[in-house]
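Aim 2 progress update. The chain analyzed this quarter is reproduced below.
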Amino acid sequence: MRLALAAVLAALALGLPLWIAAVGSVSSEAALFEGVTLWPREPTLAHYRALFAERAFWEPLRHSLVVAASTTVLCLLLGSACAWSFARLRFRGKAFWLGALLAVGMFPQISLVAPLYLGLRALGWIDSYPALVLPYLTFAMPLAVWLLAGFFRELPVELEEAAWIDGAGRLRAFREVVLPLTAPALVATAIVTFLFCWNEFLFALSFTLERQTVPVAVALFRGQYRVPWGEILAASLVATLPVMALVLAVQRRLVRGLTAGAVKG
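Predicted structure tokens:
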């Protein structure tokens, strides 16, 4: 009974802000000015029409999708190989290098904005996709390695040894035996990385001008005489609901992958 009550309270705490945002996104500006309600007053879709017809919100969505997807793919490719090396191979200084890799992700982002900006400007990459993918990859990689290494350690090494006996090399055994068995961890890592990239604000604000991502575009919404709260709420829902649907669709694999990574990571 207590667990059920706690679950209901948690659902209300998480769902109420989303519901208020949904109601506000279909309420008129006059109704929003009067205050927050739990049911739309003077319902209208004008905010959604303005979002795409006047503000071209498809562009920030496309930029966010390209950056988040590119970073996620690179993080899985590089992070899985790195994590497997830490989990299986023996080499001098392994603990030190693993600790150093994890320490990279602990740096506060604000302390790296200036040097990263100067470096990206020297390369001519300001306002480009690499200007976001590379910094995102740096901060996402440590968590990916930590999650995947914990899962790789749980796999019996005998499975790989059997593949070696059958004539497969280390790379083929990793590709055809290890990776298929670590699908939950790969899904968990992909979702966590994608969410980090989708929601990141500071680097996107600092390194982009025209290719703004969704958080930056929403933060810069301005009206001539007022803050367009209806359009902001509509944009928030448009950016949140697809990602939420993706997480709910793979929630079992996500929970299993995160739990496995936390056991021996």
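The CA atoms of residues 30 and 42 lie 9 Å apart. The chain has 14 helices and no strands. These observations will guide the mutagenesis experiments scheduled for the next reporting period.
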